[in-house]
Design a protein that fits this description.
Length: 384
């Protein structure tokens, strides 16, 4: 027979869907998450029962629920930020689907965490360790996990394991953290008028050479270990009739092996320098570095999650390598994983969508997984 908590999770699904829409329609670009943070703080305040509730100096929202000594203490993270700078982020509802910027990444994750917190408080769940519910900033892009890193640092002695919650990942469980580095690569020249100063070096043209020089180094998509390289941003110049005095790109390199990341960056840097030659200095500024590592599939934390899935009749998940807030805990040597609430597609595009049907099982799954992990003895996490 389902417990009161499990019935509350089942009953929370419709509210989580509505909450997802409300959260998604509050703009939260990376470094500007405060308005959404204020909303989440108000929701947590209304739920009540916290021993500690605050918005920290980065705009992470943190709510602490004290539990049973000796049980696993968990840090739960659902990131607030999106990749979109839009002032307006409307969500479209259709049969079985929500479509909108950041609706699954990660408005649903935040909404599900609120739904779990409310169900837990309403039913006075017992025999679980301390829980730190955190809606954190800075997961996307140049955020470089700043919110999760701060939480791991500030609460290092207050939790034993971490679970990150993402909207889209119902069918996946993270067991590897993908290592990555990100660089801004820039060129500056004298510039000048496109007619009267014609012949001077053009920063855009020089940087274009550097980008083309990366093509022979692009890793094979089928190679193992998987390694990727991407130029995701390019900017520069002044006007159509100005010889561009500056240009920059943002370069992202990832792999499940840190050594592959470092080696590929060295090759890329050398190739870009050769391409630009002595015509202008080329500068490399690191703008991000995410630690990689393993979360063993036979660890107590992952086994607890997989046990809940099996109990709910969910299919065996893909055990995958990803880049999420969980990387911050892996980098600190702590047990961690990342789980999700539903399925969807087109992440990081204005066409992003999620299926609402699977949320009926996704919310109970996330809620039960949190409790299952928080009922583990602390020693079980230390022993793997």
């Amino acid at each position: 027979m389902p417990t009161a908590y499990e019935r509350a999770l089942d009953g929370a699904v419709r509210k989580v869907i509505d909450e997802t829409v409300r959260i998604a329609e509050i703009p939260a670009p990376t470094f500007n998450e405060r308005t959404r943070a204020d909303y989440v703080y108000q929701r947590l305040e209304a739920i009540g029962g916290w021993s500690h509730l605050e918005i920290d100096r980065l705009a992470n929202v943190v709510a602490v629920r004290r539990g049973t000594p000796g049980r696993a203490r968990l840090l739960l993270c659902a990131h607030l930020d999106t990749v979109f700078p839009d002032a307006a982020t409307p969500v479209a509802r259709s049969r079985g689907r929500l479509t909108g910027r950041g609706v699954g990444d990660n408005s649903l994750g935040v909404a599900a965490m609120l739904g779990v917190a409310e169900a837990m408080h309403a039913t006075a769940v017992r025999d679980v360790g301390d829980l730190i519910f955190a809606a954190n900033v800075g997961e996307e892009g140049r955020g470089d996990l700043r919110g999760a890193r701060r939480l791991v640092q500030d609460y290092a002695h207050d939790f034993d394991a971490m679970i990150a919650i993402e909207g889209h990942m119902l069918d996946r469980v993270q067991t590897q953290a993908v290592a990555s580095i990100r660089y801004e690569v820039s060129v500056e020249t004298e510039g000048g008028h496109s007619w009267s100063a014609y012949g001077r070096s053009n920063a855009i043209a020089l940087l274009a050479r550097a980008v083309v020089a990366l093509e022979p180094l692009m890793p094979d998509p089928e190679a193992t270990p998987k390694t990727t390289m991407n130029v995701g941003v390019i900017r520069g110049g002044r006007s159509v009739n100005t010889i561009a005095p500056d240009a920059a790109i943002e370069l992202d390199i990832r792999s499940v092996e840190q050594g592959k990341v470092d080696a590929l960056f060295r090759e890329a840097r050398a190739a870009m320098r050769r391409a630009v030659g002595g015509e202008a200095p080329i500068r490399f500024k690191r703008i991000g570095a995410r630690p990689g590592g393993e979360m063993p599939a036979d660890s107590a934390l992952v086994r607890a999650v997989l046990g809940v899935r099996a109990g709910l009749g969910l299919p065996a998940p893909e055990l995958y390598a990803g880049s999420t807030d969980a990387n911050a805990a892996v980098g600190a040597g702590l047990p961690t994983t990342c789980i999700g609430v539903t399925t969807g597609g087109e992440m990081h595009t204005p066409r992003e969508w999620i299926s609402t049907g699977p949320i009926r099982r996704g919310v109970p799954y996330v809620g039960r997984a949190i409790v299952a992990a928080a009922r583990l003895p602390k020693a079980a996490l230390r022993d793997g």
